[in-house]
Amino acid sequence: MTWTHWDVIVVGVGGMGSATCLELARRGARVLGLEQFRLAHSRGSSHGQTRVIRTAYFEHPAYVPMVRRAFELWYDLEQQTGTKLLTECPCLNIGRPDSTLIAGVRRAAAEHQLAVEQLSADDIHRRFPVLHFDESYCGLLEQHAGFLDVENCVRNMVQAARRLGAVILSGVPVQSWQPHHDGVLVQTSIADFTADRLILTAGPWTRALLQDLKIPLTLMRQTLIWFDTKNDRRFRRDRFPIYLAELPEGTFYGLPVINSFGHKVAQHYGAPEKDRPEEIDRRITPADIEAVRTFLSEHVPDANGPFRFGQVCIYTLTPDRHFILDVHPEYPQVALAAGFSGHGFKFAPVVAEIMSDLIWSGRRAWPLEMFRLDRFDLP
Ligand SMILES: Cc1cc2nc3c(=O)[nH]c(=O)nc-3n(C[C@H](O)[C@H](O)[C@H](O)COP(=O)(O)OP(=O)(O)OC[C@H]3O[C@@H](n4cnc5c(N)ncnc54)[C@H](O)[C@@H]3O)c2cc1C
Fold first, then answer.
1. In a domain, 7, yes or no
2. Ligand 1 atom 31, closest CA
């Protein structure tokens, strides 16, 4: 058995873990990141080519300052790594005027004086001729949005963290952890490690590492599907926006065509909630393809071509769909970032700052009440 002592161990090196390793290394901590699979794998939540970043945040206006900070930090990372990771692209929100999406975007825009352009259904079709919505729908278009190259973000954060001295091991599952003097003892498949602090960024596997707490996290299978279009040029990002569309039958979103895979489209939420990653079916089924085809046939028919590619991904949900960013109620040397509820990736570098503040530097730059664990009725 090998014993090695670290300032901070980060369990789970997906989106949040890679960003957290980088931020801690930047702050001078001796960091060990432990990932059970290979880096930038496709079994968790941080894969599938792209992640949307948008500012007029319908989920809650409190996220708007965090998105602004996220833009800065992604641009910083691009400078440091010399890699293009964020592509600016307008985001069109489509829904009935009283829908959660439209009302939420309006609220965020009003509270934070954000520029959003109001479009009628006719305007939507005139501006983006491949989109078809009847007059009961309206659109809110914002320019300050884009998409992140998700797997490359993870890889570049890992590489940047390693350059600053972080040790990040892949293929090393953490079996358990326990308090140890004032720090922690972490048991893995290859060795035991100790550290002064522990950060859990384990995504869909979080509950397995915190069984005593009984945090109300559930998992939802999500599918990402790519279809051929009739003419990729009409889906180029200078002509076609990112869109989110809330319909009575569910919320769908899609992205411009950025490579030879075609149009990426998905349904947001709308699947049963599960408890364990092992319950998630990893295969793309004909029913998955049909579900988005029905949406495309009515609203984006030019993108309803042959199926190109599909991937399964997992949302880790909290009951209120807001994140958990907090320290462990019993062990102040342990912190947790989880429950990103399908909208967390854009915030990864901000989450990393928050976790580093919580567990390492003792700074408090953000109001964290809405992300605390004690908002849930824990047993
Ligand atoms: C289909 C889909 C679309 C999305 N779209 C968007 C979007 O457009 N914009 C946006 O901002 N967000 C989006 N999200 C949400 C976002 O991707 C997630 O919130 C984010 O990726 C979560 O990152 P994470 O680090 O918590 O989880 P993950 O990236 O899954 O990382 C957790 C890591 O922990 C590792 N791990 C777990 N247990 C152990 C253990 N015991 N030992 C070692 N390693 C362990 C796992 O292997 C994994 O690599 C989307 C999510 C999905 C699934």
1. yes
2. 14
